[in-house]
Amino acid sequence: MAVKLDHLLTDYFSGKLESEMKLRKLELQYHNDHDENVGGGRMQNNLTRVTETTMIHIESDPKLQLYAYQKEIIETVLSIVPDNVVRVVKSFYGSKNSWITISMDEHISERTARTWRDQFKNELSKWHIL
Predict the structure, then answer these.
(1) pLDDT tens-digit series, residues 19-38
(2) Domain for residue 14, yes or no?
(3) H or E, element range at 53
(4) Which of 22, 88, 108, 123 could pair with 112 as two cysteines, CB 3.0-4.6 Å apart?
(5) 108 occurs within a structural domain
(6) Whole-number Å distance between alpha carbons of 26 and 12
(7) Cα 37 to chain center, whole Å?
(8) Does residue 118 fall inside a structural domain?
(9) 64 and 26 Cβ atoms separated by less than 8 Å
(10) Mean pLDDT of 80-86
């Protein structure tokens, strides 16, 4: 579970989560469930509402909903934790700095930086984002 959360945070801070959301929207937008009408008859009274159908697919897609939920929860938790914890988490997951570098930049011990990261992850895990 912790490894999955680490991957999710790395994806969030690197921008990959946002890219995955955009790609999923494009997949749904251009995915064509085209019926070739194998029976040979012609459909009558067929109104095609492509835009409406696409929006319904995008809004009801479980994968896209999960991405949006994860992003929203991470942003919410980031907004309520202290700035120094945010800097540590961004530095570790976004910039991929070592604990030594982070501790020197923040003027704290390595253990404190790891504790802040763990507290942040514990706060996220309360929301069941995986």
Answers:
(1) 999 999 898 888 766 555 56
(2) yes
(3) helix 50-60
(4) 108
(5) yes
(6) 19
(7) 38
(8) yes
(9) no
(10) 96
